[in-house]
């Protein structure tokens, strides 16, 4: 395992020595570390971090004194000052990097502060993730020392007045350690390219020169890249060019809708490894070969809180209600959905990320992503989550032996009642009515509320089958190409209006 023989910097090596495996204690240590470092900032002074640190029940005192923020509230009150060059606002020092993020539904870019402390915490979590491969059965050792093809954002960052901004994957690649450079593909020159089509073309041209063991990225864009390589070189599968390809490290969306399409591109099975890396930090990673969830990073650089995602804490539009209850890691239950709050070493405090998760194994702190607080359908109480949708698509694709790499759903009026409208990407031959009926049946099986509402106010389900290229073209028009961008599973508001205009040729 040549890649494990690398001599890591001492501070990283020290960080990899875990204390006792107690998530509650680990999280309280992280909270104390964050509060101590930020106590002299404007934010720390206003919310009395010193007083919190002296309290016996530090977690509860923190929740009592510090309010919950979403992006808009923390930006308008605090982060805008850092873009003006002011230091020591929410985190010590001046913010020199920002991750540009628009999520999957917002139109304008968000500026998420990135600090060296956050990058160091992410890096340590990534190394722990790499070392966890030792737990895999029959691991293809020779693949570990081969190239890592990372399909991320450009490392040629935008220059602002005193800061740089860009995709987090581009910032991470630009500041990656020297010892990783021999493994990193496509290399610094191609990674700087901002034009996504040019970047893909250069990767395809260079592909025969590389010996790739890992591919890393969002499934839709990785699949497109592999298809282009196979077509260019008249291959039967990607393993004819890269025989040592053994790992696909993915994240951002559920992989299940893409799995059948990926199998067609491979000459032999590979290991699929899920990660949860948001612009705000490295949250979780799969550390066991057949785990159903990802291990939460409880001992590094993020303090987590969990708000039960139910009618007591959120309204029908996914907005947090007054009087909500936030839990710490030892207070959660398996099988329930929670919205994530993060406090990080980049100045995010009790920050509502917008993702919902579920604990599959509380003892091991393993979670799955179930959706977004804004990306669910509950027009009449059907409470349809992205997790339900993903599972239904997976089951139907298996039943019909078809590949459905993309889909999205919208709610719409239907007479005096309501309907769901599905838009499904499928390049295989399929009967749209059969597909509509089967998805409806699977959702009734998966979700009791949906089944009940289909007999009352949710009167109809519509479905359009579209070519996958149409989904990709819409993303290009919205400027959401490559990197960490993914198609939203639920469309609402302006994004839905633009999608409907695009389908009738009014948005080009």
From TrEMBL:
Residues 297-361 form the GH3 middle domain. It holds the Pfam family GH3. GO terms for cellular component: cytoplasm. GO terms for molecular function: acid-amino acid ligase activity. Residues 389-492 form the GH3 C-terminal domain. Coiled coil: none annotated. This is GH3 auxin-responsive promoter family protein.
């Amino acid at each position: 395992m040549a890649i494990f023989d690398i001599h890591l910097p001492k501070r990283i090596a020290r960080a990899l020595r875990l204390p006792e495996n107690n998530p509650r204690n680990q999280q309280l240590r992280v909270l104390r570390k964050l509060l101590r470092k930020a106590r002299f900032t404007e934010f720390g002074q206003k919310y009395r971090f010193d007083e919190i640190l002296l309290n016996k029940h530090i977690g509860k005192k923190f929740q009592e004194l510090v309010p919950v923020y979403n992006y808009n509230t923390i930006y308008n009150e605090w982060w805008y000052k850092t873009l003006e060059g002011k230091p020591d606002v929410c985190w010590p020092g001046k913010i020199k990097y920002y991750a540009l993020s628009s999520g999957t539904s917002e139109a304008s870019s968000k500026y998420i502060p990135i600090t060296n402390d956050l990058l160091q915490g992410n890096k340590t979590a990534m190394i722990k993730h790499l070392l966890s491969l030792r737990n895999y059965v029959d691991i293809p050792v020779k693949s570990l020392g081969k190239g890592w093809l990372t399909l991320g954002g450009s490392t040629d960052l935008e220059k602002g007045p005193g800061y740089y901004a860009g995709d987090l994957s581009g910032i991470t690649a630009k500041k990656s350690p020297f010892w990783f450079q021999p493994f990193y593909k496509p290399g610094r020159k191609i990674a700087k390219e901002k034009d996504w089509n040019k970047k893909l073309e250069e990767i395809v041209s260079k592909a025969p020169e590389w010996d790739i063991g890992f591919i890393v990225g969002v499934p839709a864009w990785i699949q497109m890249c592999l298809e282009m390589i196979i077509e260019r070189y008249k291959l039967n599968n990607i393993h004819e060019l890269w025989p040592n390809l053994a790992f696909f490290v993915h994240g951002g969306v559920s992989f299940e809708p893409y799995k059948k399409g990926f199998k067609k591109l491979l000459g032999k099975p590979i290991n699929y490894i899920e990660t949860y890396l948001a612009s705000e930090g490295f949250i979780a990673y799969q550390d066991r070969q057949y785990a159903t969830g990802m291990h939460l990073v409880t001992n590094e650089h993020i303090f987590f809180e969990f708000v039960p995602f139910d009618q007591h804490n959120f309204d029908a539009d996914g907005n947090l209600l007054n009087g909500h209850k936030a839990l710490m890691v030892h207070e959660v239950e398996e099988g329930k959905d929670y919205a994530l709050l993060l406090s990080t070493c980049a100045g995010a405090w009790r920050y509502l990320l917008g993702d919902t998760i579920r604990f599959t194994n509380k003892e091991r702190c393993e979670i799955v992503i179930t959706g977004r607080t804004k990306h669910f359908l509950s027009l009449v109480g059907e409470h349809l989550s992205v997790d339900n949708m993903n599972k239904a698509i997976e089951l139907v694709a298996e039943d019909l032996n078809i590949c459905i790499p993309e889909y999205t759903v919208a709610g719409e009026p239907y007479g005096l009642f309501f309907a769901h409208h599905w838009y499904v990407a499928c390049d295989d031959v399929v009967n749209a009515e059969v597909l509509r009926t089967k998805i409806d049946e699977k959702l009734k099986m998966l979700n009791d509320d949906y089944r009940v509402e289909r007999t009352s106010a949710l009167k109809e389900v519509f479905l359009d089958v579209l070519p996958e290229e149409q989904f990709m073209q819409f993303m290009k028009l919205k400027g959401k190409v490559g990197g960490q961008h993914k198609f939203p599973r639920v469309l609402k508001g302006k994004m839905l209006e633009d999608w409907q205009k695009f389908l009738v040729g009014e948005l080009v």
